[in-house]
Q: What sequence folds into this?
């Protein structure tokens, strides 16, 4: 490894602009003649829109236009799409209601836009919005899954009778029935996976510009995948043709899934920029983010696990109701199916698994992928199940897990996934050692003497990242392929630009991707630039989500580099009058092995561009492109152990220690990997202890600001103790697996298992607020 | 509309704004100092923290008029030319930032924490618990705070050395 | 925020005069409560009169058995004041836990009391210590000042100028913060006066704002010790209930925070 190559803890190249206030986020973009949009949103969870009167608003200072849902329908702007078709167990396609960007007739969740005011200033737009009179006829609302599936419940969409989007299943029901009939013990569990609000710190924003002369659109947007945004805005929403639309996602302040989707506000901004023939800026505020950013999780599940007399797992049966909110968001349908139920085998040999998933409409904000997306729900269910089982079977929870671990790879689970490699014993052993698991009983006794309830909780997670291959996901209903592209441009002076379809919104690609180049060529990373986030610069890309950037995007860079190197070697061999097979690359030079003959990269690059002395028939230039489609998912896995204390007087939880032992395959930049784990753990712990979106019966969001939705703060969290065990991923050229979501997937169960251990009561839902924990202790 | 005169990053400025204008909007919209961010609308996230007369305050919870006559330092005014402030350097060296959005407010709050503890004669000895507690008014969604806390503790040492050298 | 007219007052008289000129004026001190409410468009004052730079309204005076904090003194300055730390350490400790550091630099005692948020900290200290609220017109006893949620005895245009606290024999404050907002989910201030009386006030708990806690006062009168509260039961009726704390949970917190406040008081 070089000082800046693979495995080096290189400080981030991108940091200088962020620490000096020079980052450029969407709201920082200003254009000449820019106008401002403010949306008029439904205060009701379910209502008919009887009329919109903007007469008074149009008279107010600075108002340019008031545009409504009916106008967007009249202009034939397409309804929002869901990109993954799921088939119910009876063979019927999923049942979707229409989702126009602004509601012309019916609103189905609080915060849904019905109209937009465009004005000269933001304040003028807000002032005028209050003068727009919307005549609503309120309808009864169904705010949660249980209410929505009752007979006689308010119906959201005529297309989805009973509010059921799909009733899907996976696995072998008969085999599971058989397993349970032979069981020595059966463990059952009912639990909720609480709804979360992503809350990336940068609220969503859009700046749209229409160039009348060129009939060309530009959209600056807070996106994790600008190319997908362009594709969807063109092919499905008909707002601008693809070759006349440039989408730029500049610095983006966090995403966590919530910035994958192409939301109504971005669509409307783009559409309105032509309508008013002015650049239009929309910047969401936090209150709008709470109401309109796609929420995450929200499952209600029942699970049963069958064990034989030796405590070996025989089977698992799960029934889950997934709340989709009022509309099917872009990726939503896949989350509780192919990203959830396919992970229900966890790290264990489970001979038979059967899962049913019922997707349900409710009068709430749409729900979609949020950091982990389905996998945290699977991991939480399974790891609470293992802990519950250990207590019921009166065995140590780590022993029960080890007894049932998968030891042979590759391993085909009964629910699609084929795990390529792993070592689950290594990670749990590392975590147990780090936390001194053996010494816990003594620590617990000591804490008891001090009036504190101490608990320890384990969670062994596995996730599937870098969803692929495209052909396979296509056969399961995906509307897109899930490959990635890379283009390497070696400039005539030997500097290098890497154009990637991945998008960095905190992940540090500008550093990590450079390290891959530095490793291969031995050039300093200062000679390499990463270009991303602009559809005019990068030809196409699928973006960043699902921990895919290094495993898929990084692999694409390697593939493109292989092509560049092959050509460069030919040029070097020609210049050095050597055989191509004798050329090796070291420290930025192309050398003839075993000799002192060498030519530096800049000279090779210059030769490629002057083209004065290239091998016969070779095209000038040194630029290569690769599209990489993986052969399988990657399977990061690990073990987390949490030790904490509960104050019996208040129910408040305090961390004693939190250890994580992860297997991400090869680490390119361990510093950045650790940062990803820290952030994921914070979100997993946040879900377990603090965060939960709560609706009242009428569909009003009770937790609609940071005043009521508990964001993890510095004093809520411990410092984390991380370690890594490594099995290299055989499926990609870097041996990497991805690390972005692990913490969020594995942490929640460890925390809840520790609290229930501390208080001696397994009946506890997330978030385990002091109030809930206190009641669980005292009844 | 009023004319507000104040000093920002050492430069005297005079700006005509509506009276309802918040300091953060004066900085971002009128002075193009877009390093100061807005992350919430309930005065909690701290992305907007700047120094007003040497104290770290939320510029989203201060009218521009209230800052008239004051000395304001924003993230753009923290470094001395190319030389990073020790807190900025510590955030970079400890990977105390990811998406960068909360970072300016976080750094401005952190500088204030260290100044406060140095001036209180605690010998610049900040501990982890104190740093975590005093970062209560700054929300980060990316880092889990682990490396932010490390950065602040690291910078506290660097700033003490810098102070001693002056 | 709706458009408004901002005025910076040069003196208390000037503030009162400016206030009278507006059709719907409000005094603005640190603005840590008023401005968030205005940002949400839940308040629309025609005029805001900034009193935070009036010299006569800033400062702390400790003389004899009285600590006087002028109304526009920020929480940070109260928390840092050596005089307050010496005279009523519980008060400086309370001030050091209000909001977060940035809020403490701007927020003021006068602003907090005039707003009377049911989850604010200062009202608990004012009520438990039997403080006197001084305005440009009169002095108001703590008992007579708080009138329920967000409501006080202040008349239109009346401005708090200072708050006087009698120095107690012992006092302590313990707060359990709302996990989200960090306001007091329940905070309890206990005080033993130099005359031997015991006064206890709880904030964040009651549906009618800051309240005296009779059962705790009686128990502590008999025996000033945390353990004296072991057998005390706080009724849940009339207490606030929300997603962060049910009424019975808050009732428990009144007792537990009461015990911790006694321990803090020593």
A:
């Amino acid at each position: 490894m070089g000082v800046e190559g693979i495995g080096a803890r290189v400080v981030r190249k991108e940091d200088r602009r962020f620490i000096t206030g020079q980052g450029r986020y969407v709201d920082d973009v200003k254009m000449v003649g820019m106008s401002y949009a403010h949306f008029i949103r439904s205060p009701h969870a379910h209502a008919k829109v009887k009329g919109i009167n903007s007469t008074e608003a149009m008279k107010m200072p600075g108002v340019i236009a008031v545009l409504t849902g009916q106008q967007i329908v009249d202009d034939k702007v397409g309804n929002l799409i869901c990109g993954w078709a799921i088939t119910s167990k009876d063979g019927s396609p999923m049942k979707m209601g229409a989702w126009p960007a602004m509601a012309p007739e019916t609103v189905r969740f609080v915060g849904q836009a019905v109209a937009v005011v465009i004005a000269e200033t933001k304040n003028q737009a807000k002032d005028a919005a209050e003068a727009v009179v919307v005549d609503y006829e309120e309808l009864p609302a169904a705010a949660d899954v249980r209410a929505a599936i009752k007979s006689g419940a308010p119906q959201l969409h005529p297309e989805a009778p009973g509010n059921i989007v799909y009733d899907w299943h996976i696995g072998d029901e008969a085999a599971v029935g058989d397993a349970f009939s032979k069981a020595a013990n059966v463990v059952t569990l009912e639990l909720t996976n609480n709804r979360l609000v992503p809350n990336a710190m940068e609220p969503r924003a859009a700046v749209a510009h229409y160039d009348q002369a060129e009939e060309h659109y530009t959209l600056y947007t807070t996106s994790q995948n600008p190319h997908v945004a362009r594709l969807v805005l063109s092919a499905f929403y008909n707002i601008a043709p693809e070759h006349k639309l440039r989408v730029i996602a500049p610095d983006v302040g966090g995403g966590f899934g919530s910035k994958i989707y192409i939301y109504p506000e971005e669509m409307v901004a783009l559409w309105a920029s032509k309508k008013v023939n002015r650049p239009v800026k929309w910047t969401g505020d936090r209150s709008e983010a709470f109401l309109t950013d796609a929420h995450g999780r929200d499952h209600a599940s029942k699970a049963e696990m069958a064990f034989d007399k030796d405590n070996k797992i025989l089977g698992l049966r799960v029934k889950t109701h997934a709340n989709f909110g009022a509309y099917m968001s872009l990726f939503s349908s896949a989350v509780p199916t192919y990203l959830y139920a396919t992970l229900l085998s966890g790290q264990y040999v489970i001979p038979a698994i059967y899962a049913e998933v019922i997707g349900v409409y409710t009068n709430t904000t749409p729900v979609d992928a949020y950091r982990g997306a389905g996998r945290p729900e699977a991991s939480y269910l399974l790891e609470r199940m293992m802990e519950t089982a250990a207590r019921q079977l009166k065995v140590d929870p780590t022993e029960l897990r080890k007894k049932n671990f998968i030891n042979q790879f590759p391993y085909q689970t009964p629910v699609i996934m084929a795990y390529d490699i792993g070592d689950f014993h290594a990670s749990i052993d590392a975590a147990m050692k780090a936390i001194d698991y053996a010494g816990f009983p003594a620590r617990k006794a000591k804490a008891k003497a001090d009036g504190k309830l101490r608990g320890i909780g384990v969670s062994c997670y596995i996730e599937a990242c870098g969803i692929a291959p495209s052909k396979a996901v296509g056969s399961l209903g995906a509307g897109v392929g899930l490959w990635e592209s890379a283009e390497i441009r070696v400039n005539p002076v030997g500097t290098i630009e890497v154009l990637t379809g991945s998008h960095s919104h905190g992940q540090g690609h500008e550093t990590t991707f450079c390290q891959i180049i530095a490793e291969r060529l031995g050039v300093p990373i200062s000679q390499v630039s990463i270009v991303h986030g602009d559809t005019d610069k990068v030809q196409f890309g699928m973006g960043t989500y699902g921990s895919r950037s290094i495993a898929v995007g990084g692999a694409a860079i390697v593939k493109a580099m292989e092509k560049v190197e092959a050509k460069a070697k030919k040029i070097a061999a020609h210049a050095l009058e050597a055989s191509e097979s004798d050329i090796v690359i070291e420290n930025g030079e192309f050398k003839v092995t075993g000799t002192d003959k060498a030519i530096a990269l800049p000279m090779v690059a210059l030769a490629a561009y002057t083209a004065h002395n290239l091998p016969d028939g070779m095209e000038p230039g040194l630029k290569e492109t690769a599209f990489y489609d993986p052969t399988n998912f990657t399977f990061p896995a690990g073990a987390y152990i949490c030790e904490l204390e509960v104050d019996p007087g208040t129910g408040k939880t305090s961390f004693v220690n939190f250890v994580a032992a992860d297997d991400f395959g090869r680490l390119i930049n361990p510093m950045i990997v650790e940062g990803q784990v820290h952030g994921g753990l914070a979100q997993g712990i946040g879900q377990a202890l603090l965060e939960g979106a709560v609706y009242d019966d009428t569909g009003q969001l009770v937790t609609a600001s940071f005043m009521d939705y508990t964001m993890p703060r510095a004093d809520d969290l411990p410092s984390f103790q991380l370690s890594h065990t490594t099995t290299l991923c055989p499926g990609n050229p870097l041996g990497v697996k991805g690390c972005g979501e692990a913490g969020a997937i594995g942490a929640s169960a460890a925390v809840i298992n520790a609290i229930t251990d501390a208080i001696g009561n397994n009946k506890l839902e997330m978030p385990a607020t002091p109030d809930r924990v206190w009641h669980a202790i005292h009844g | 509309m009023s004319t507000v005169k104040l000093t920002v990053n050492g430069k005297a400025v005079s700006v005509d704004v509506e009276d309802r204008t918040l300091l953060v909007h004066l900085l971002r919209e009128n002075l193009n100092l877009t390093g100061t961010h807005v992350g919430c609308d309930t005065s909690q996230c701290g992305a907007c923290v700047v120094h007003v007369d040497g104290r770290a305050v939320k510029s989203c919870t201060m009218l521009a008029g209230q800052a008239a006559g004051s000395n304001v330092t924003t993230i753009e005014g923290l470094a001395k030319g190319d030389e990073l402030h020790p807190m900025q350097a510590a955030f970079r060296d400890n990977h105390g930032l990811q998406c960068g959005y909360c970072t300016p407010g976080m750094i401005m709050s952190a500088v204030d924490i260290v100044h406060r503890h140095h001036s209180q004669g605690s010998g610049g000895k900040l501990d982890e618990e104190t740093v975590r507690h005093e970062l209560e008014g700054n929300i980060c969604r990316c880092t889990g705070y682990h490396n932010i806390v490390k950065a602040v503790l690291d910078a506290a040492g660097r700033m003490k050395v810098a102070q001693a050298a002056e | 925020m709706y458009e408004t007219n901002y005025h910076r007052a040069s003196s208390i008289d000037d503030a009162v005069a400016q206030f009278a000129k507006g059709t719907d004026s409000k005094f603005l001190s640190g603005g840590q409560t008023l401005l968030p409410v205005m940002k949400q468009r839940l308040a629309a004052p025609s005029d805001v009169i900034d009193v935070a730079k009036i010299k006569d309204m800033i400062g702390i005076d400790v003389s004899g058995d009285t600590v006087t904090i002028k109304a526009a003194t920020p929480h940070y300055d109260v928390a840092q004041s050596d005089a307050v730390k010496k005279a009523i350490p519980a008060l400086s400790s309370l001030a050091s836990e209000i909001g977060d550091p940035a809020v403490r630099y701007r927020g003021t005692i006068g602003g907090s009391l005039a707003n009377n948020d049911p989850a604010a900290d200062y009202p608990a200290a004012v009520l438990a210590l039997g403080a006197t609220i001084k305005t440009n017109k009169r002095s108001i006893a703590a008992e007579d000042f708080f009138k329920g949620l967000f409501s006080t005895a202040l008349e239109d245009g009346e401005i708090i100028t200072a708050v006087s606290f009698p120095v107690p024999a012992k006092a302590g404050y313990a707060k359990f913060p709302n996990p989200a907002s960090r306001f007091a989910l329940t905070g309890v201030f206990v005080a033993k006066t130099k005359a031997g009386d015991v006064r206890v006030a709880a904030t964040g708990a009651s549906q009618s704002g800051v309240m005296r806690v009779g059962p705790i006062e009686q128990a502590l009168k008999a025996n000033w010790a945390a353990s004296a509260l072991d057998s005390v039961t706080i009724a849940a009726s009339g207490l606030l209930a929300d997603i962060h704390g049910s009424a019975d949970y808050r009732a428990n917190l009144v007792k537990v925070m009461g015990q911790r406040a006694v321990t803090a008081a020593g």
Remarks:
- Helices of chain B lie at 23-30, 86-93, 103-119, 128-134, 146-165.
